[in-house]
């Protein structure tokens, strides 16, 4: 049984322990910054909540209604170190120094690919973005659906060994998204920056055998939009992807009937867009052709089925008596589901495949950070305080404890 961590407890800094799985020293020699941490500024909060996604990392304190910080999940390391240069750069400072730094993407398609970069990113989140000491607060972090089981073990090692947290927990993004809706079950259709997925949840339990992933999401849409615009006479350099992303968010949409929209009069969808340099360009069918890859991955040469077909496959993998309830409670999560027309298209496609059943779509206005919000809700509950994995349990059982203890 994990030790209860009262919300008002102020955790003393603990000495570093080698741990049962071997201590992994900080490869970058990151400072602890413990001397500059406020001693009691956040002692009334239960935990820090960090949702690290492929594109962005959302972080804040348990009980908050929205993240206090959202930063890109990319780290810049100086190519040539000087006494004045920082150990790393995070966020908007990186593009301005591309010649001076090597960039490291923390994740690819929801899976951590650079653990040193993740350590630097979390260091920045704790000490700069949130101004908290990780040694003093429990930490809840998220994990993406269908990620390797070793992901959770390494997260536990990193938090206990390198950041010396007193307690931690890892939770699936899909389950936390369900909690953000105030529910304990439903079919989550998630689409963020690097990956999309469909995941059924029943009574607070994920059904992994019925969870599917599609490696097409917001970033793929942005790249495809750039390709389409280049073909229509508006080329963009790879360094201008942020501009293309802004065009996607402001101009693109998902029609209910793709073929009908494609065959419609061009005047229906043609629009002008003013670039940051004040140049005006015209955007036509690219506005909806780029988003169609979510429903027809073969347009990119992918053999997978579309997100709507995956959703039905997830439902049909569940027990027959649960299928109608899942179809009636489809919960959208992730920034890409914010595209205009997404919820209407999903509903129409699902209804087309299940005409005799009711389809219900829930689309929270906060679904861009639904996983983080679910973590904030869960970590602030009194009933959750006995669930944390504490240092003693970690030292006794090792990092494998996350598989038995975390949901």
Automatic annotation (TrEMBL):
One of its GO terms (molecular function) is ATP binding. Residues 1-39 are annotated as: Disordered. Keywords: ATP-binding, Cytoplasm, Cytoskeleton, Nucleotide-binding. Pfam families: Actin. One of its GO terms (cellular component) is cytoskeleton. This is Uncharacterized protein. InterPro entries: Actin, ATPase_NBD. The lineage of its organism: Eukaryota, Metazoa, Chordata, Craniata, Vertebrata. It is found in: Cytoplasm, Cytoskeleton. SUPFAM superfamilies: Actin-like ATPase domain. Belongs to the actin family. Residues 27-39 have a biased composition (Low complexity). PANTHER family: ACTIN.
